[in-house]
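Case study.
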Amino acid sequence: GENVEQHPSTLSVQEGDSAVIKCTYSDSASNYFPWYKQELGKRPQLIIDIRSNVGEKKDQRIAVTLNKTAKHFSLHITETQPEDSAVYFCAASISGGATNKLIFGTGTLLAVQP
Amino acid sequence: NAGVMQNPRHLVRRRGQEARLRCSPMKGHSHVYWYRQLPEEGLKFMVYLQKENIIDESGMPKERFSAEFPKEGPSILRIQQVVRGDSAAYFCASSPNDGEKLFFGSGTQLSVL
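After joint prediction, the assembly is written out as follows.
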């Protein structure tokens, strides 16, 4: 069925280090892959997204890579800062009939140690 | 442009009562999605609606749960005869395009006593 797996579930890094979060998806027809950041008690917010016709996308310290053949995509955060600490969710679009919805991974709790 | 508005932020119900959660999408957005989030879990898709139509309710329990998005007014997620297992954060999101760039509301934290 429709499934998005996300690893690791928790990640602790030192300030200034890089962080990488990986996701795999099951629906080969998925063509849109966003990443959301959720701070404690707040709403998920879109931080970056990528479409299937692109292999990599960067926005300042964050980047996303996509491997359609292997059906996996990754979030890379460089020069991490304490304010990057949050839960990060990946998602993949699932299409079927009249619907097009996002299926989310289970989240990664990122802790950036000062 | 106001964001996605959800109310109430917190809702406490006793077992057997009804819960009504409201969501007003961003201006210009006609696609509304409801997700449920349990502690330390991801966002679970429940239902996708457009004005006056349920497009996909495959993630919503068949019993006790219903959703609507009328021509006028907010989208409503209704849970009848709530049980303790319904306790969760319920997030609404809206999109200008089908299934992409979802903008989330602040969520409703439902607690069932």
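Observations recorded in class. Chain A has a mean pLDDT of 93. The interface with chain B takes residues 6, 32, 34, 36, 42-46, 49, 89, 93-96, 98-107 of chain A (CB under 8 Å). We will return to this complex in the next lecture.
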